[in-house]
Every structure is written in structure tokens, then in C-alpha cells.
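Teaching assistant here, posting this on the class forum so everyone can see the example we discussed in section. The complex has two components, and the goal was to see what a joint structure prediction looks like when all of them are supplied at once.
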Amino acid sequence: MAEYFIRRLLLAIPTFFISTFIVFTIVRETPGSPLDRAIMELKMSAATEGAASSNSFGGSGEIPEEALEELKRFYGYDRPIWRAYLDWLGVMPRQTVSYKLTEGTPRNIGDGVRAIANIENGNWVIRDYRDQDRVIDTWTIDTETKVADNGDKQVRIFKEERSGILQLDFGKSHEYRQTVLELVKERLPISLQFGIIGLLLSYTVCVYLGILKALNHGSAFDLTTSVLVFVGYSIPGWALGAVLLVMLGGGSFYDVFPLGGFQSDNYETLSFFGKVWDHAYHFVLPTIAYTIASFASLTMLMKNSLLENLSQDYIRTAFAKGLREKRVIWIHAMRNSIIPLASRIGFIVALFLASSYLIELVFNIDGLGMLTFRAILARDFPIVFGFAVISVIIQLVGTMLSDLALSVVNPRIRFK
Amino acid sequence: MSNQKKETTPEKPLTINQRRWSKFKGLKRGYYSFYILIGAFLLSFFLPLFIGSKALMVSYEGELYFPALRATWNHATWGLVQISEYVPRDELGQEGGGDEGVNYRALQAQYELEDEGNWVIMPMYPYDPFEDLGTEGNKVFMAPFETESYTVAGMELESTPRIFGTDNNGRDVFSRMAYGFNISIMFALVVALSSYLIGIPFGALSGYFGGWTDMLLQRVVEIWSTLPFLFLVIIFVALMGPSFFLLVALLAFFGWIGISLLMRAEFYREKSKDYVAAAVSIGVPTRQILVKHILPNSLVPIITYFPFAVVLNISSLVSLDFLGFGLAPPTPSWGAMVGVGLQNITTGYWWLVIVPLAAMFITLLLTVFIGEAVREAFDPKVFSRLR
């Protein structure tokens, strides 16, 4: 068992690298990728609006020039793709900080150092401006000398460092002026709360409902709840959320629940119970939306799986030796019936991840999905790449969780 | 009773597909849903004859014109064959600027007023999904059944009630909902078929050959399923700009995995059966074994999956449209309407959210009913239960 999971974990590592490489390549190499688009937009920003403005949620689609420079270096557009990927991972060193120095003009380069660059014997030499005898040699000097429009000679100096996603350096968002890690840290708990509560709720409700349906197969109860299942299958979670929001959010019909958001504006001033109530109040509709996404399939899975088990010989044997019905169903049949549900956890995790954009957008919750969606619109690529990595990890963890749950409920499964 | 049976000539036994069809027929809910949905879909190719702003027939000074036919042809060919629907105003005796097309609703009123024997027959519901504020009498965010009086060429006119109001560009919601049905189903079918085209060969090869081929393909599938699908689709559309074929390609690109897994399991099971061994032993080429022998025997799971693939694709399209990364505007799309409605949720334009979602819901519900019946007919499971 332990051996299997270790092997599984080791297998997940190449999968992680290949997946992130594919995402990295796609985002980098798609025609009209961040850089192409950004350059084009900078060139004609005055004349036209970007294609992004045709999207219903707006977004300027423009990138400030410094950010563009930073972006170019961060994603290594001047390097071949494999090298850029390794840089981005943090396996190979890349230029982290860089400054452009003009000949004879002093400039602050951080840590209280003011540097001046001069050409001496045809080579660039960087000196401390205050103490001009001291040559600064901790920086690497770019081999290329640029001549500015006014004839000034310029050179770029930079420091090389291994810094990438393996060092948890996802870069810095140019929209929020914060590191991606900070942004994600703020929002992950919000999204996770919904995800975990939704997962627990859908499993408890669906398992119980599925059992009842199986035990009363063909009865009036079974048929009426089947309608519920069909409805659940025919409407995506976010769509049901939108309908509920319109019906109960106070805009058009009844004013029962808040119009989205994660907590009230006066949240900080509320008492403890007030806070709990406020939380719960904002939680109801989004949680329903998250739960409905897997409701139908889970319920039917539970029902069919239990029905199939109840027709097996070992159940007949259990009844024949005089066990009570409750014991037969809950101890004998349930243990086997729950197996397919356990293997579905990975899928549900994926579903949750995908529906987070939609549901957070519908309910205006500032979580991970909303952050990424805004980042794509604003072409804030550090966040986009960061989210790609996080979702690949969550997906891998979900798959492993499935296997783990599977081996817990079904000791017969010996993973090899 | 038994005597009678002996006298009649023994009937030819039903083939498996005939039995499946008669079983499907017996499942009324799915059977009727099937006819309703197919009928509605076929009918939706002739939508401009029922819903549209182009007159079905115009009689002007003894000559007949059929503007809606051209619109129908354009709609049915999805604009692949562009035919100009533009008729200058003075050609049919309507007053107005030289570069504006005929407003047939106004023309109808004008002819009635003039009473010179000219007449116009309009479609049942006289609004086009594309006409916006540029056409006289359209207004943004009209409520359901609201009418609007407006003047065109000196005539006071009262517009026909809008069944479901208008949207943020003054376009008719009912009309857009109806045209959106055609596009949604068409899209879902094309995506489902293309993902079948990729998934079936992948799964078949993987299941039949096993070993290294299988290992390799399974790795591909595993990596594929860790990719954040919706995220990548959004990225692609955001970077390359929305288009019908890009979206089809993307959804098919991610939709084939499930199908390949189904096919793999089927081929894996079928290949060990005697008829395959017999075919191999008499030297049937592998390609023929795969296509002619095993494939027809392993179609059941993918046929029963088809309606559910359609459901999945329709809801994906609506979701992407809602996010603003679906089909290019001004394509009539359900999701985009919901997006506009939710942006203005405090002002109470509920019809923009409820109408398209209700249309989607009904379409998906019918499809699920069909899927349920198909599954029952093709793959019946009889659960016998003790006590």
C-alpha cells in the first residue's frame, strides 16, 4: 500500500512537469500570445481597442511598458522554449533584477547603492557613484550595448538567480502590484471553503438519497426524486445559481438572500454570532450551486451501485442466515456499493475547479476563479501561469485522493 | 391458443437493432422527447419563415417579392454562402434614407394606410435576432410584452409586443433565444462527432494492441486529464479571438478522452472473444478486424453516451458564452444573454437570465430523457432484489 502510494507520487512528478510544460507552451506559443499581443497593443494603443473589450466583462487588455520588459525576461522570450521553461521552473538561473544604465548617468540599483556606468578601454565598467574607486562586480553586464535616440549609450546589468515555481516564485502581478503567491494566499481559503463544504454536502446528500432510492426502487418516492435528479442533470450549477440569484436576490422578485459577495460590507463591526450568521447568509446560494454540479451523477451512481450489489449472491446468503435487513444493507451491501463513489472524488475536484470561475463570477465572490478570470482579461500572465500550476497540482492531488479513498473502502484492491 | 400459434407461419425473429428500437419506442418519455427535439431542430433551420423581420411575401404594384427566403437560405447555410438581404427603401415605395434597408414592419403599416392594393405578409413573430437600435422602434431593455410607439416616415406606429423583451442592444430576446437553439444544437452535434472521430481510433488501438501502445496512450490520457480544460479554452479564445471552428476544435480536443476510455474497455473485452480469434486465424487483415468485426460490436457504450455528450457540449457552450469566451458576437447565444442580465441584476432585467436558461434547461432535459431511454433500450439492466 505505502509502496504503491510512493510509486504513485513519483509518477505524479513527471506528469506534473509534462502538464505544466504543455500549459506553458500553449500560453507562450499561441498566435497572439502575451508578448505578441502586448507589443501590438502598445504600438496601436492610441488608435484602437483590444479584442478583449468585446468580452462582456471588459478589461483593458493593455500592458504597461515596464511590465512588458519584465514579462519578456520573466518568460524568457529571448530564449528557446525548453530553456525558458527550465528558467520558469527555477531549475536554471535566470535574470531576476535588472537595470538599464546610461553612460555617465548615476542610478540607484537597490540596497542604497548608486551606480554609474562608463566605457573604459572599450568595456563597460560599473562603479559606485559615491566611491568611484570601487568597481561593482556582483552584477553581470549585458554584452549588448544599446544606443538611445539621443545618442546616449546604454547597457543593462542584471543578477542571475534560480527563481521559479519550484522556489515558489510565481512572479508579480502587474495589475495588483503584489506577488502571485500573496494574491493566491488571500483567495485560496475563500474558494476552498466553498469547495470543501460543497464536496461534503454533495456526498452526504447524494449517498443518503441514493440509498433511499435504491431501497424504494420503483416506488413513488423513487419516481419523484428522479425528477429532481433529471433537473439536476439538466442545469449546470452556475446556471441554477444565476436563476436563484435573480429570483431570491432582491433584484427582480424576492429579497431573501444577498446579491452575491462573500460577506457584508459591515462585516468587521458585527458580533461573533453576527459574523457567523452573515457568513451563513452569504453561503447558502453559492453552496447550492456548487452542490448541484455533482448531485445528479453521484445520486444515480449510488443508487445503481447499491441496486447491483443487492442482487448479488452474498446478500442472498446474508439474508438466508437470518441477519436483520438493516445490517445486511448498511454493513454488507454499503461497503461494496460505495466503491464507485470513492473513485469519483478526483473527478469532482476537477469539476469544482472548473465551476469556480462561473460560480464566483455569478455570485461576485473574489476567490481564485475570479482572480484568474480577471487576470486572463487583463493579460496578467504571472497570475495565469500561477493558476495553471495550482490547478495541475490540485488535479493530481484529487486523483491520488480518489485512489486513497478507494483503498480505504475496498481492502480487496491491491495497487500494484 | 397453442394451436393457433402453430398454424401461423413462424415470423422472422427481430434483429437486435429492431428489438432495441421497439424497446425505445416503448419508453414513451424518451421517445416523445426524441421526436420533439429532432422536429424542433429541423424546423429551426427554417426559422426566418417564422421569426424574423424580413417579410415572407411582398406585393408591390402587382409584383411579388420573397425577402424571407433569402434570409432562410442564409440562416440554413450559416452565412457560409452570403446572400445580400438588403433591399433599398425606394424599391418598395417606402420613404427614408438611401442607405437604409426596408423596414418591413413599417412597410406593412404603410401599405395598409395607403390602401392601394399592395400588401405584406410578415413572419409570425416579426423580429430578427440581429436587428438592434439601428432599426426604428427598437429600445434597450424592454420588458416582456412591452410595446413601444414610434414614428417612421411620418407614421405613428405601435410595435408588436415583444414576448420576452429586448436586451442591452435593443435586440429581441425571444428571437435570439429561438435562433440560439439552432446554434447550440448544431454546435453540440459537431463537437460530439469530432470528439468521437478522435476518441474512437485512439481507444480502439489502445484496447486492441495493449502493451506499449496502450501504456503510451494511457500516459497521454493521464496527462490530458490533469490539464485545466476550461482555463485553456479561455486562454485560447482570449488570445486567438472567438470563432465557431476554433471552439469546436478546442472542445473536441478535450472531449475525446472519455470516449477513448469507453472504446478501450470495449475493444479490450471484445478482442479476447472467439469470433476475433476465428477472424485472425483465417488471416483477415488487422484493419478489417478492427473496423468490420470488433467496431460494430463495441458501439453500445458510445451510442448510449452520445446524448450525454450533447448535454455536456451545450452546457459548455453556454458557460463559455456566459464568460464572454464563446462564439463571436453578435451570434445569438444563450450564455451571453445571461451575462448581460447578471451584470444588470440590481435593475431587475430578469428575463435576460431566466429566458435563455429556461431554453437551455428544456433542451437539456429533453436530451437527458432521450439519453435515459437510449441507455435503457441498448443496455438494459434488470435489478432483481431479494426482499
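For the discussion questions: The longest strand of chain A covers residues 94-102. The beta strands of chain A are 94-102, 107-108, 114-120, 123-128, 140-147, 153-161, 172-173, 178-179. Think about how each of these relates to the inputs above.
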